[in-house]
Known about the structure:
Shape: globular
Largest sheet: 6 strands, antiparallel
Strand content: 25-35%
Distance between the termini: 54 Å
Strand order of the largest sheet: 1-2-3-4-6-5
Amino acid sequence: MADGQDRVIAGQYRLTSEIGRGGFGIVWRAEDERLHRSVAVKELFLPTYLDAGQLAERRRRSLREARSAARIAHPSAVTVYDVVEHEDSLFLIMELIDGEALNAVVRRDGPLPPRRVAEIGLSVLEALRAAHAAGVVHRDVKPSNVLIGPKRVVLSDFGIATIDGEASLTSSGFVMGAPAYTAPERARGEAAVPASDLWSLGATLFYAVEGKRPYPGANANAVFHAILNGSPEKTRRAGPLAPIIRGLLRMDPADRLTPDQLSTLLRDVAEDRVPVLGAVPPARRRARRARRLAAALPALAALVAAAGFLWPRHPDRAAPAPTAATTPSRLLATLPTGGQVSTLAISGDLLAAGGEDKGVRLWNLQDNQPLPVLRGPVSNIWTTAFSPDGSTLAAGGYDTVVYRWDVATRRPKARLKVGDGISSLSYSRDGRTMAVGTTEDVQLWDAASGKRLRTLRPGGQTSFITAYSRRSWLGVVGPGTVHMLRASGRDTTLGDTGSYPFSLAFDPAGTTVAVGTMNGRITLWNCDTGKRLGTLSTDGTVFAIAFSPDGSTIATGSGKTITLWNAATRERVASWTTPAAVGALAYRQGELISGGYDRTVRIWRV
């Protein structure tokens, strides 16, 4: 039996066999005995040379980065289910992928054709875009982290480099990670940026299509010297991929291809829109496509005619694209946005949405017409909140600043410099106080003067989500523990959520609080008695929770699934899937609004 095999981690995950190991940890195959599924468990090694204080800081950073990694919801990214502590070790619980590493495929089969490499590159690029939108830089894109499965290509080890304690340089002055796939700026000891991942993707594409690394060298020093002072090896097999690879392997991050440019170029190669030696001539391709289209037209016409009877017509609203898993009769409107939606806020007939496009988008819900976009933030927006009287809209994200606008004039108000990444914003019922949950603490601000009133760190935790109840009690949840800060200032601990939290909501009366976590559970507490009322179970991280205006129903968003629950009996009332992961939920009388990772806001009749 391998050392550690058959251990049960955190009372739930039984290790069955070792998949692999490296300098930063061991990856195990395991069985989730609670949810009855196979998972991958990475046991993280913390450096033995650190003192107690450094170990504590490393552990805190690891947990914080794991929460960021778990925000990544994309078919081409390995899903992070949970992070647990067991016997002073950290364990990352992940989706188990049935696939083979790209480097193993190339070693066995030789260099891959350019079109296949372009398809692989598209999948990895989309996974990276989802990661960068969540504020995560991968830092270790390389062939061994690209898994080729029967139906999908997946990029693994999201955030692992940082979770494993990666600094820019080790104490001996060398960059940690795979040297041949390390961007020049990181080889110089500079911080990793999203463009660093694109350089590493370029090096990975080079390896896949050429069967060798772009920068040779007998050891790490020789490779780094080549990266910083030389040019990559010439491509011989890349064909139409050659200019794409060159565009990614540029020395200056600002000169590299952008994600949009790269997506277009890779798709052209993958879909045979770029001439390749031996390819079917364009004229013959066009004729063949025309014949296929003509053959398909009668069936397409019949489908359109049938759709006219199935789908309600709303001339002033965008028609949704039907999918087999959705419930079309619920959908009232689909509103396009400029990026993945992470937060929604409603005040009367005004809807605000924020996310990866760095602006707050507004709609008038009376006619679903868009209003001018509010600009100012320079990073992804994770949270928005209207003041109780609807006069002010606030937003915050990774750039550590709370942005505020006058709703009537759409003009910006004074900004609040918080100092840490912002995960949540909430106003007290009287509108006098704003609570800001950050990666390090909870800050209370005077909403009128913009002065900081107090800084809290309940339970000594980090990475907080906050929400005010109707009673102006402040709910605060850190990694695993829920606190209730009453108006008197007394801190009451309600209990442990069992996993890392991503969402928090009060019912309209302020008597019940619900917390959604990374492991797919929603736990309910009675705020008066502190009694745990029960737990709801879903599949995947619960990114969003919302109570209906009358408090009778709880809506949850987990992966692509929206579920409605009876708040009193905690029974599932309805459930349907959406085309993409749900990032935010908000109720309006008779309607539920969802924000999606497919850059849309959807309005549902409930």
